[in-house]
Design brief:
366 residues, globular, mainly alpha
Length: 366
Amino acid sequence: MVLANWQPPPWQKIVLALAIGTAGGWLAQSLHIPLAWMIGAMSATTVAAMAGLPITLPIVYRTAMVAVLGVMLGSGFAPEILNRVADWALSLLGLAAYTVVSAAVVAVFLRKVAGYDPITAYFSASPGGLSEMVIIGGANGGDERIISLTHTSRILLVVLALPFVMQWVFGHTPGPRPAGGIPLAEAEAGDMIVLTLCGVVGFFAARLVRLPAAAILGPMIVSAAVHLVGWSDAKPPTELVAAAQVVVGTTIGCRFAGIGLRLVGHTLLASLGSTTILVAGSLVFAVLLQPVTDLSAVALFLAYAPGGVAEMSLIALALSIDAALVATHHIARIFLIVVCTPLLFRLLPVSVIGRKPGQSGNPPGT
C-alpha cells in the first residue's frame, strides 16, 4: 500500500519528463519530421502524461528557453528590416479583424456545440494568450481547467498539423539551412555573452514594465535593437535552439498530467473543432490579403495561425519562413487579446454571458 501511494520527488519527475521529451525529439529528428525536436518532445510527453507517468516540468524551464527563442527571433531583425515595417500595416489591420471575427465564431461553437458555459467559452475562444486567458477567465468565473486545456490542446493540434498543412496546401518544404546559428563548438565567447545579456536584460526589463509574454518579448526587443544597430550579427547555437524546442514541447505535454481521460477527450474534441475554425480562418485571410499586401501567402498564413508566439516562431525558423514578420504579427495579437478581451468582457450584457462574473458553472465532461 505504501509503495502504491509512493510518488517520486519533483526532481525525478523533471528528469523523466526531459528524458522522454528528448527521446521523442530525437526520434522525430531521425524520421525527418518538420519541427522535429518540439513536435517529438510534445507528442512523447503527451502520451506519457495521459498514461499516468509521473512527469512534470516547472514553468521556469520554459521561461528560460523561451527567452532563448526571443533572442533568436531578435537576431533576425537586420537593419534592412526597418524598410519593411510599412509593408506590414495592412496585414496587421487584417490580423485585428481576423482575431475578433474568429474569436466570436469559436465562442459560439464552444457554447452551442461543445456545451461550454458562456464565460469559459468566451475565454477559451481567443486565438492566443494561454496564460493570460486562464488567469483572467478564472477570476471572472470561468473554469480554469477547461480554459487551460482548450488552449493547450489548440497549441498541440496546431503545432502537430501546421508544418504538414503548409506542405500540402502551399507546397512549402523546409529550407536547406537549420533554424539556429552555428554549432556551439564554433561559437565565440564574446557573441555568447552579448546574446546572454540580451536575454537576461530583456526579460527583467519586460517584467519590470509588465509586458505580456515578457519571457519572449523582452529578449526579442533587446536582441532586435542590438542587431538593428549592428552591434552583433550572432545567433544562438543550433544545440541551444534544439534544447529550447524540447523544453517548449515537453511543457505542453506535461500539461495533460493528472487530468481525467473523460475531460481530456471532451476538450480535445471541442478543441479540434475550434482549431479547425481558426486555421481555416487564417488560411482564408492569408489568401485574401496576399494580393493586397504583396506578402507571401505562406508567411501570412503562419503569421495568422492560432498558435503561441514561441511555437509559431519556431515553425517559421524551422521552415525558413520570414520569422520577423511572423513574430511581429503574433506579438501584436498578444497585445490585442490581452488588452481587448477583458475590456470587451466587461461591456457584454449578462444576457450574453449567461450569468454574472464570479458565478461558477459545471464544466463539460466532468
